[in-house]
Amino acid sequence: MGTIESTAGSSEDKSTVIVVEHLYKKFGDNVVLDDFNLKVFTQENVVVLGKSGSGKSVLVKCIVGLMKPDSGRVYVLGEDIATLKEDELDLLRTKLGFLFQSNALYDSMTVRENLEFPVRRHWEGMEQAEIDSKITEALENVGLEDTIDMLPSELSGGMAKRIALARAMILKPEIIFYDEPTAGLDPVTAREINALILKMKRKYHTSSIIITHDMECVKHTADRVLLLLEGKCYMEGTYKDLEQSTDKKIKQFFELES
Amino acid sequence: MKLWTLTEGNKEFINETGSITKFANRFFIVGMKPRYEFKELLTQCYLIGYKSLPLVALTGFIMGLVLTMQLRPSLIVYGVESQLPEMVGISIVREVGPVITALIFAGKIGSSIGAELGSMKVTEQIDAMEVSGINPFKFLVATRIISTTLMLPILTVLADAIALFGSYIGVNINSVTSFSLFFTQVFQGLDLNDLLPAVIKTFFFGFAVGVVGCYKGFNSNKGTKGVGIAANSAVVLSSVLIFIIDLLAVQIADLMGLNY
Ligand SMILES: Nc1ncnc2c1ncn2[C@@H]1O[C@H](COP(=O)(O)OP(=O)(O)OP(=O)(O)O)[C@@H](O)[C@H]1O
Ligand SMILES: [Mg+2]
């Protein structure tokens, strides 16, 4: 492990965008992450698979610094996020997009304002026309142009998810974290979302961590799959490896499908 | 012999006092640094200050009127009925105006800040703001604390003025006084030493309401119940703090010889 540690976090190491080392996190007696390790390389879609309550959301929240791990290190774009000052962290986060499992749309703002909010802050002095075109583009991507003046409370669950997705993507960030991007969506829309995730990678060279139970989504978007089980990385491989595996615990995920 | 044992209850009290102090301290360290959220600050001043005007005006008016009608009989007993405007003026400006206005303010604004930030916390909107690189402490907390600190003194001065007008009407129920005579008498009884400490303490009242409301909302527990508790405890704690600050203020003013 020594060689990995020595290169992790050094900014010359362009090939990795996220390095997670020996991550521990527990809530009371509930050990959620137990020596978890992960690397994400540039322009790679990594899918984290795991049962409900296995700690997938906790993992991504630890990576972006919303939760403090009990021990372990997290490097994002070469920076150790535990040592960053508040404004340095703010700056780093402008390069990240995050889709919350709960969507987390600002409920006092309309859809337009939800999308405009991050744009206005990061490109100050941008022309209104340009902002509008970005918003329209983001809404077109998720197929919801006509919701622009609605409030989040007026959207259905799936619509809110797609708006949240549009918001996570609007700044064209270097890394996007998708926490269950297709949950609660019909198969047709889910397929469009999968295509969109791929498009983000191809067109804007984003790397991403995708959390999902949806095997269709895994099949289409994953370059590499990781199975999170009992706080550890149980297995790692491509979708094919997973599909062909004879391991009971891995097979379970496919059986659920049929 | 143990004089003081730490039970769970007072341990929690001490912990909470520490956390609120830290929270307030963070306001001076983080909240005062650029970038400044002027637009949000103005919006909050409008919501917190301007939107509280009708309520504060109504309570102020009634406060002045009632105080006058309650004081009159006692003053008649001592044969100093003519001192009524001075008496009312001093009590309103020094104590009743600032404290009643602050309590009303704590009830209206403290609870709404607690509930708003609490529900934003619970639905992960604060987290969402944080990961998009917008510092929620600056955007949500600092703007609200600054607004409450600046708006409450203004509201108090207005409430004082309206209360004095209410008092003028109260005086005229039983006798006839001209508007100018009444206010001449009021201002004869008042000087800067009455006004200054009273206004200064309202800045602290406003600061307390803002800090407590934001702290409670920011640290709200999951669920609808958590939001309710955040709103409720914000009002209770900021009301208690208003009285504690009032107590300190009168002691300090006394030591400085401003109470005579
Ligand atoms: N803030 C918290 N306080 C206490 N326990 C928590 C907290 N957040 C998560 N947990 C616990 O951590 C564990 C993992 O939660 P997490 O939300 O990461 O699951 P998940 O893998 O995302 O599940 P799902 O697929 O259902 O979203 C759960 O047992 C949960 O009870
Ligand atoms: Mg989850």
Essential attributes:
heterodimer, A: 258 residues, alpha/beta, Rossmann fold, six-stranded mixed β-sheet, disordered N terminus, B: 260 residues, mainly alpha, binds adenosine-5'-triphosphate, binds magnesium ion, Phospholipid/cholesterol/gamma-HCH transport system permease protein (chain B), membrane (chain B), phospholipid transporter activity (chain B), transmembrane helix (chain B)
Description of the structure:
The complex is a heterodimer of chains A (258) and B (260). Chain A is of the alpha/beta class. Chain A is 40% helix and 24% strand. Chain A has ten helices and ten strands. In chain A, a hairpin with a 2-residue loop joins strand 1 (16-27) and strand 2 (30-41). In chain A, helix 7 (187-204) runs parallel beside helix 8 (215-221). Chain A starts with a helix and ends with a helix. The longest helix of chain B is centred in the middle third of the chain and has 39 residues, at 84-122. The model of chain B has no long low-confidence stretch (mean pLDDT 92). Chain B is built from nine helices and no strands. Chain B has one domain (38-255). In chain B, helix 2 (38-48) runs parallel beside helix 6 (136-174), helix 3 (53-77) runs parallel beside helix 6 and helix 6 (136-174) crosses helix 8. Chain A binds chain B through residues 61, 64, 66, 86-87, 90-94, 96, 98, 100, 102, 104-107, 117-118, 121-122, 171, and chain B through 30, 33, 119-120, 123-125, 127-135. The complex binds adenosine-5'-triphosphate (ATP) and magnesium ion.
